[in-house]
Amino acid sequence: MERPNLSYIDTLSGGDDVFKNKLITIIKTEFPDEKAVYLKNIEAKKFKEASENVHKLKHKISILGLEKSYAIAADFENNLKKNKAAGKEDFDNILQVITNFLNTL
């Protein structure tokens, strides 16, 4: 599985450590909340709401340099829109990888 990285954030920040740290703080603050809402909706089988949660989480996935994971998330989002949970296990694994990574920052 891919490993999250800060390459995109480094590029965005252009060497400005204050800006870089602000971006990281925003991700570390928002991600757990967005993940929790997704988990609540998926558990309740609210697939439309869960698809919206996945859509939001895809942005974090992209920012953390996870290109293959982004494609998996996009497929899962589309499945949820069709009231299907195919891809849930892979998506949940991506969320765990990101959680582990953010805990190291």
UniProtKB/TrEMBL annotation:
This is Hpt domain-containing protein. SUPFAM superfamilies: Histidine-containing phosphotransfer domain, HPT domain. It comes from the Bacteria.
